[in-house]
Write a structure and sequence with these properties.
Length: about 300
């Protein structure tokens, strides 16, 4: 085991730099209380970093607002290579089989495949719209959201298929652009869009398996799905900008239950030991029991809406 593994390094995004810090347990953390000795290294870029770093084989991969993708030695913080793009790179890289897959955002956004060792471009693909989502790689296919859900051959960079819902028009706000990152489980792609829908799409054919429509008393323009779905034990958990976390049957798309918060949900849910955790723009972090749907009173005692609305 190398030095970086023994230290149990936690990578973090901070301002315009990439930092590595040692893990510590504290009751409260503030800018004044952080011990400088926890910093193992910092690497400064020329732009804001919204990308979550990916660490593979001792290398940290991250995108930056300075139109670049960086590969940094995880132990020393030294740059290994930089790849220049034409726009900001807010997406989190996906790294597999020695290839880094990453997207740049603005119109027309692009998907890149880069050699993980040298940073050389292997291929690039241009969807017909902006690209907000991070790439997901499954079975030699790259899935990414833009003016539709795209499936791109991971080796050749050629489009396999594009899924668009009926009535899609990317020039009209709220009609269906795919901004959240897709998730693939057992040959099915789960993804949401600005048209207030959650879709299950066959990963091989691009055919729709089911569609769930967000129905609430919130204005239609405020029900977008920006939160990336999480799929665990046959249930799809996904947040909506209508302030609701939805639990859907992964096979049928039928709603199992929903939980309302006081504002929109950008956060992507995390499931651990029978609980689903997520944040809301109402300034709260929530923990829900995935079986009984009870809410943890410690983190949600100030929630502003009625909470769980169960559909049986």
């Amino acid at each position: 085991m190398n030095e970086i593994s023994r230290r149990n390094v936690l990578t973090a995004v901070a301002g315009t730099g990439i930092a590595a810090t040692g893990i510590a347990t504290v009751e409260r953390t503030s800018a004044e209380s952080v011990d400088d000795n926890r910093t193992l290294w910092e690497y400064e870029t020329d732009g804001l970093i919204g990308s979550s770093p990916t660490i593979i084989d001792g290398t940290v991969y991250a995108g930056s607002g300075d139109y670049s993708v960086y590969a940094i030695d995880a132990e020393t913080g030294d740059r290994r290579w930089t790849f220049d793009t034409n726009d900001i790179v807010p997406s989190s890289p996906a790294v597999t089989q020695g290839v880094v897959f990453v997207t740049e955002e603005w119109f027309p956004g692009r998907v890149f495949a880069l050699d993980a060792e040298a940073g050389d471009e292997l291929w690039q693909y241009e969807p017909e719209g902006t690209v907000h989502s991070s790439p997901t790689v499954y079975d030699r296919t790259v899935f990414v959201g833009s003016d539709g859900l795209y499936a791109i051959d991971a080796t050749r960079g050629e489009r396999k298929w594009r899924f668009r819902p009926d009535g899609f028009d990317w020039e009209e706000p709220g009609t269906g652009s795919f901004r959240c990152s897709p998730v693939v489980v057992d040959g099915t792609v789960f993804v949401g869009n600005d048209g207030n829908n959650v879709f299950a799409v066959d990963a091989d054919s691009g055919e729709k398996e089911w569609r769930f429509d967000i129905q609430s008393d919130i204005a239609e323009s405020d029900r977008e799905i920006i939160s990336s779905p999480t799929v665990v034990d046959g249930t799809v958990f996904v947040g909506s900008m209508d302030g609701t976390l939805y639990a859907l049957n992964a096979e049928t798309g039928k709603k199992q239950w929903e939980f309302g918060t006081g504002d929109g949900i950008w956060s992507s849910p995390t499931v651990f030991e029978g609980a689903v955790f997520f944040g809301s723009q109402d300034a709260h972090v929530y923990a829900l029991d995935t079986v009984t749907d009870d809410v943890d009173p410690v983190v949600t005692d100030r929630r502003q809406r009625d909470g769980l609305r169960r559909q049986r």
